[in-house]
Amino acid sequence: MSAGTLASAAGQVADRPGGAGAAAPAPTAGGASGIGELDAGRVATAGSAAVSGSGTNASGAGGAAAGTGDKTSSEPGFRCPAGPFDAPALAGASALRVAGFPPLDAFNDSGNLRTNVEGPVWIANKLYVSEFAFTPAPESRILSFDPLTKSVAIELAHAGSNGLAVDASGTLIATNHVLGAIVRLPFPLGMPEVLIGSYDGQRFDSPNDLAIRSDGTIYFSDPDYQAPASRPQAKTRVYRIAPGARALGNAASVIDDTRSQPNGVTLSADERTLYVSGADGIYSYPVLADGDVVAGTGTRVNAFAGSSDGLGMDCAGNLYATAGQRIVVLTAAGVELGTIAVPQAESVTNVAFGGAEHKTLFVTSMGSGNQRGLFQVELNVPGLPY
Description:
Elements: E1 37-39, E2 43-44, E3 96-99, E4 115-123, E5 126-133, E6 140-146, E7 151-156, E8 161-166, E9 172-176, E10 181-185, E11 193-196, E12 210-212, E13 218-222, E14 237-241, E15 253-256, E16 262-267, E17 273-278, E18 281-286, E19 299-300, E20 311-313, E21 319-323, E22 326-330, E23 336-341, E24 347-354, E25 360-367, E26 373-378
Parallel strand pairs: 1-3, 2-7
Antiparallel strand pairs: 3-26, 4-5, 4-25, 5-6, 6-7, 8-9, 9-10, 10-11, 12-13, 13-14, 14-15, 16-17, 17-18, 18-19, 20-21, 21-22, 22-23, 24-25, 25-26
């Protein structure tokens, strides 16, 4: 979900495909002209109750929705409609920046420090993201955005997180590059509980992105972008954690150890395919009935050229791949449907669907000033919450 190291003093980032710098305004989704900003309103500090609206600090109530032939999201209370779905309306689609996100304060030197906004996940009526700087094993914080009240909150000031996801109980699960682990963060957010923190006796390099199957299986990537100076792992890998792995001795199994800087991770709408992006393209892996993935079975999604960061999925099974200042939308078969422009972003990092009908695509971006932060675009098809 995010690179953490600068490739050069010129501002190139190791796991990011091109797209640095601001761009001229472009038409917004729905045909409105120009690029505007959505006002994020006031900011609440960590632990504050200042953010109004129902569902604040969503609890695990509601459980997992019952499975059907359609993908059932692990977010409590949300399940994809039965369909059928129209093709995503992408002609002229462009994301609007959410003003005031992230808050400018000491964490990012009042906006002067270049940071990364990453790992969006929609839980109840809020979007949660990580923000961190471009240093080895950087500190990070978790922020939230409530579109109803347009409020921003600092949910956890010291999180160490990158990618975020939600499990069937409504609990936040995060990749943690400070601990080199996959952690659990029950609401209200506080001290992380390590679910799995090592492979072959060593901590992970810098766990980046993750996806959670409805049975609790966790898939995650481990590049070395935010790894300590002395790298714990000899290779960058994609891993699987089976349900109940902690009781089995915290065992993680390797899905692929041949990928160059594996990054974004998502499951198909029917949970039968795992997608992983990286510096060498996007690969798909067949998922077995028990959630296992046979090692080394990845096939490149040839329709996508170049590197990609984060990945998302809509309820029709279309894949959303972030790359530079755009999001490329692909069918399950890998056919490109079109793109969503994010011209104000330096480089988009990830996406998640949210809002009342899960038809708002939230987009995160790294950078500084107005090139960094949160963007959103309304679509005609619902999607998954991370």
